[in-house]
Amino acid sequence: MPADVDTKIITRQFGNEEAKNIEVYESLGGYRQLRRALGMKPEDIKAEVKASNLRGRGGAGFPTGVKWGFVPADAEDVYLVCNADESEPGTCKDRELMYWDPHQLLEGMIISAYALGARNNYIYIRGEMMRETPVLEKAIADAYERRYLGEDVLGSGFACHITVHRGAGAYICGEETALLESLEGKRGWPRLKPPFPAVVGVFGKPTVVNNVETLCNIPYIVEHGSQWFADLGVGRSGGTRIVCMSGHLERPGVYELPMTLTMRQLIDDVCGGIWKGREVKCVIPGGSSMPPMSADELDVPCEFDALMTDERIKPVEVAPGVPFDMGGGKELRTMAGSGGIMVMDDHTDIPAVCARVVEFYHHESCGQCTPCREGTGWLAKISHRVAKGEGRPGDVDLMASIADGIAGNTICALGEAAAWPVLGFLTKFRAEFEAKIKAPKEGAAA
Ligand SMILES: Cc1cc2nc3c(=O)[nH]c(=O)nc-3n(C[C@H](O)[C@H](O)[C@H](O)COP(=O)(O)O)c2cc1C
Ligand code: SF4
What we know:
By secondary structure, this protein is α/β, with parallel strands linked by helices. It folds into 2 domains: 3-232, NADH-ubiquinone oxidoreductase 51kDa subunit (Rossmann fold), CATH 3.40.50.11540; 241-438, NADH-ubiquinone oxidoreductase 51kDa subunit, iron-sulphur binding domain (de novo design (two linked rop proteins), Up-down Bundle). The protein has helices spanning 22-27, 32-38, 42-51, 64-69, 94-100, 102-116, 132-145, 176-183, 212-216, 218-224, 226-232, 263-270, 304-309, 350-364, 370-387, 395-406, 414-438, and strands at residues 78-84, 118-125, 161-166, 207-211, 241-247, 253-257, 280-284, 293-294, 317-319, 322-323, 340-345. Strands 6-5-11-7-8 form a 5-stranded mixed sheet, with helices on both faces. Strands 3-2-1-4 form a 4-stranded parallel sheet, with helices on both faces. Strand 7 (280-284) and strand 8 (293-294) form a beta hairpin. The longest helix has 25 residues, at 414-438. It is globular, with a radius of gyration of 22 Å. Bound molecules: flavin mononucleotide (FMN) and iron/sulfur cluster.
């Protein structure tokens, strides 16, 4: 990897088994930023986070400081919930952050809780994270012992508690309102928004939900200031970005990188190119819910705004020449999502990938809304028959119209998560789907 792209900040302890010990973390400068933050006014910390251009790393890239600003100024009980569900296919960074450097997350959370006036706070962790949960629980116990947590954090008078809550492995519980329902002990069904969690969240109280990676960045904003953090990034996106590179690569892995790098640089320079000397065919840039990119669209920086707006990426279409309307005529290209980048070589069967992705969202739909419950089922059925060479004339248009009917018509964004990749695959690889239908497998139904 070229030296100038080595920007390890929140991943710098990856591989160091010792860093999870509180003494080692302290000796490396850990919890110093908490002490500094406790000497600052909560308002000033919030202003710094806003000016830093930190954007949420959970999927939507929403500006963190703006979200924090939605909490009503006169709110008495505020909660901070760390979303550690990490369920988006292709994403595997939060578990590494929690395993290698749990105190970094705790320090980020305690500073954030102080800024928000949040006394009782939770880490909602995916049930399958057997390796990470005990590491976090030990780190929390040690932090209580050293008075970084408790009724009187470091003698400041600020009370801060963190509880780890284990989920049970439902993808939908990563969606923030389903997560809050689950945290309350109910079935993980997403809530209608508004009201947004920052106003009515867990137990009916204002709640900020932030992703693990988002919160890990907070101590560095306190340490170096908002300008430093904003300068690390590009445009309206501050900081570095962790990408989880998987698929047909020579060197897949979890990398922390500047957002100036293009997708092609990530594949060729960081990951050593496509395996077996093959060519790239398709890239999913931010977890399986994001529209894919084709091989001729990869010279775009992997930054939140560029992936949404760069005209070198073809807009997603609902029919040839008819762009998908995000609302108000706004076109959808793709999104940086959760940083799960899946790379496919030129031997990949795209209709088969599409069917696999659809199957996942169908399986994980909570069933509350008809367009998602029924639509994902229909999509699964049709995409499987197309993939098997048993498609019928008109199936490609039918899939596009079902996907278009789901997006924008559901309670939560799982609807879009299911619809967008389908529309994206059909836009960029339509000929492959049509070829499968025109040349049915021998013996397949007409
Ligand atoms: C179906 C679905 C699943 C999601 N899964 C996750 C997840 O596993 N982890 C996560 O941080 N955010 C997930 N999100 C996004 C959260 O709803 C929320 O926007 C995020 O946790 C906010 O944190 P951030 O502002 O720091 O990005 C999901 C969203 C949807 C619609
Ligand atoms: S969109 Fe799907 S997952 Fe979301 S609430 Fe509706 S049925 Fe449930």
